[in-house]
């Protein structure tokens, strides 16, 4: 659905944030976009949806150049930024003035999501708390039923019950036709939701793999001591040592996203080599 | 360039719903401002408020209020949160552009004229007219000065309109500053160029205007033919159209 080819981008020409970046994102997935602060997660999202112009290369949505911002493309994508703007309208007024731009908007679904998030229907939006505003916008975005849903740090500002509700609602809203991209630095919030990981590091996409593929190649476990194992990455914890090991036997383990992310940004080349070499073997 | 009338209308209605409170307050401020200025002028002048005085005031306040208001029409694009909401809304750039243009150019002129005449008809009879009937400035007249003023307003609107899209904050101040700097530089360079071209020292040589030459004690003027003076109105019109087009492309290329 989203195709990025040789994309280079920088707010200054001499200081590029991305260089010759390639990425392909498909329907039917919930992508988790991870990266350190300042790695360019939000900027990458903006390039994807046409809010920032690449210095070189292209970014297309279903074959259409994202930077053109054609209405036909925009009506099939919804972007929820980290910091949102809501006008001084009631929820009902907002829906009546904005939903008409999205041909597949479902008012019934919207009010259902709103009820699940416990956001009052008749409240004036700019008088709501930030968390309530965000929940309203998430509900609106989901109810647009656009094929592409892009969210930048959606759980920021949500309380714990709302985060649980968010995971439930997003999981229920995923269809074969839909591509959901979530940028976050709070991986624990979305661990059970994301099915594919995209990691931005050092101006490159270093990982773009489904969690199942990662767990086929790597074993995530906790051991009493790291010395007896061929450890790729380890972190001390109260229960022992959390480690990433090679997984030649294909033993199933749940991907510890935080551990995996820390391993990637620690500059460990072996993990990346393992992921990529296996990837090539699979491709052959 | 895409344009869909239904979508434009929806966008217009959305814009109105989200901004009508601000526009109503701005209208009230405009009425108050016109009343204050008109009251002060009438109080300060010894005779009744003449037609010429009314005309000058109508033009001057329209230019000031119009450029200030126009500078705010795309101010949302300078705020990252609002800009994202505006730019990702499924409507074309042309439709978004036209909503701002209709409000700041067409609707402003109608509302401004209504406010001015409301104050004029309320305040003017209070002036000291003696035995004569109060004289009101006619709104519609085909005289040349009015045409020139409308062209000038169009040009200044286009400058402010471009500034409201181009700058992220302090739209009016930055646009006005840039306008005066460019105007000053242009006037200076034009004088230098014309002096080189004609080989004489010029008293004044503003772009697209008459020349004033001082030779010894004699002052000469090189005038544009009087019967063709109307053509000069094309200059602000042409520049205005150019700036409107530039503003459109700036909106199209706006990024966050």
Report how far the terminal alpha carbons of chain A are from each other.
24 Å
Distance between the termini of chain B: 21 Å
Rounded mean pLDDT of chain B is 91
Strands ordered across the widest β-sheet of chain B: 1-2-3
Helical region count of chain B?
A: 7
Shape of chain B: flat
Shape of chain A: globular
The overall average pLDDT of chain A, rounded, is 90
Largest sheet of chain B: 3 strands, antiparallel
Number of strands of chain B: 3
Topology:
The complex is a heterodimer of chains A (about 280) and B (about 260).
Chain A: E1 2-9, E2 18-25, E3 29-35, H1 41-49, E4 56-61, E5 64-65, H2 71-74, E6 77-80, H3 91-98, H4 107-116, H5 130-143, E7 148-152, H6 160-173, E8 179-183, H7 187-190, E9 196-201, E10 204-210, H8 211-217, E11 218-223, E12 233-237, E13 240-246, H9 257-265, H10 269-283
Parallel strand pairs in A: 3-8, 3-9, 6-7, 7-8
Antiparallel strand pairs in A: 1-2, 1-4, 4-5, 9-10, 11-13, 12-13
Helix pairs in contact in A: 4-5
Chain B: H1 5-44, H2 51-72, H3 80-87, H4 93-123, H5 144-166, H6 171-198, E1 202-204, E2 211-215, E3 218-222, H7 234-252
Antiparallel strand pairs in B: 1-2, 2-3
Helix pairs in contact in B: 1-2, 1-4, 2-4, 2-5, 5-6, 5-7
